[in-house]
Amino acid sequence: MIERDLVIVGGGPAGMAAAIAAHENGVEDILLLERDHCLGGILNQCIHTGFGIEYFKEVLTGPEYAHRFIEKIRSAPQIEVSLRSFVVRLEEDKRLFFIKPGVLENVKARALIMATGCREKTREMIHIAGTRPSGIFSAGLAQKLINIEGLLPGRKAVIAGSGDIGLIMARRFMLEGAEVKAVIEIQKETRGLLRNVVQCVEDFDIPVYFNHRISKIYGKERVEKISAVRVDGDFNDIPGAEIEFECDTVLISVGLIPENELIEMAGVRMDKKTNSPVSKELNRTSIPGLFVCGNSFKVYDIVDSVSRDSVIAGRLAAEYLRALR
Question: Are residues 323 and 288 in contact, defined by beta-carbon separation less than 8 angstroms?
Fold first, then answer.
């Protein structure tokens, strides 16, 4: 076991901003763990523009936004980056165990920042009936398949939910020559940013069905069609108000869940409804010296806000370490 002043779990926009802020506030021993093969997190697959408007006062793509922080990390030798490092256990005394290729390591942190982000809600969480054919993807997975792997998941898609990733992927499918039959949203208004509604849906004449939900998915080997039903103000189905869409792909974009199983394992007080830490102050938890920032603390609409608030986490960690001396 080795001891480090500050360990940060997650090398996305939150973790990088926290690491840089901690370094700028006097922390000289920082270990940044990232499970992927490169820094940047979800930004690496977000090749569309719209990032950095508030934080950098420029319009950037996701990879461009991430690159600004990666360059700062590289210029700070006090920040050690460990890639392909997957944390599997966290204890109350801020000792954590992580797997690297071929080895299990553990480290004791004097201060710890968790920047583990979110995961997407799945089909099972919104109780869509029907068969289990291929062709059902979370919107984020479809984004990675297209933008990173160069694979088009389908030709005729229906989007379940109108979150920002779903709206952006509706546009992406259209740009790749696929057809988006509809966006199905159970609420009476969109969950995404207005700019995404205009640029991704209205500009491409994609129909949006508010107050509707996907009631059933049909298909044996591959998705063949879906049925959607109109719902009332209490989200109950309205009899006789069903419509069907032939499609080969269903994208699920119905919200995000903070990825906080590790801090729950360590004994942090959690809000079961949101899967985020119970806290009266930004980025703090019930365990002294253990901080959470970015989407794992609360779900943000834009990455600029993630960076801004994660800087505060870096400062808090630096203050905590100074108090220990």
Answer: no
Q: Do residues 34 and 144 share a domain?
A: no
How many domains does the chain divide into?
Answer: 2
Same domain, 226 and 263: no
Backbone angles phi, psi at 244, to 5 degrees: -125, 150
Q: What are 163-221's pLDDT values in tens digits?
A: 999 999 999 999 999 999 999 999 999 988 999 999 999 999 999 999 999 999 999 99
Specify whether 235 is located in the same domain as 278: no
Q: Which domain holds residue 234?
A: 122-252
Rounded to whole angstroms, the Cα distance separating 192 from 254 reads 10
pLDDT digits (tens, 9 = 90+) for 101-118: 999 999 999 999 999 999
- The two most distant CA atoms of the chain are separated, in Å, by 69
Whole-angstrom Cα distance, residue 103 to residue 223?
41
Structure tokens at 116: 């583990």
Q: What is the pTM of this model?
A: 0.93
| Distance of alpha carbon 246 from the chain centroid | 30
Contact 184, 197 (CB under 8 A): no
Side-chain-side CA neighbours of residue 117 (13 Å): 17
Tokens 């990879």 belong to residue: 63
Q: What is the pLDDT of residue 258?
A: 96
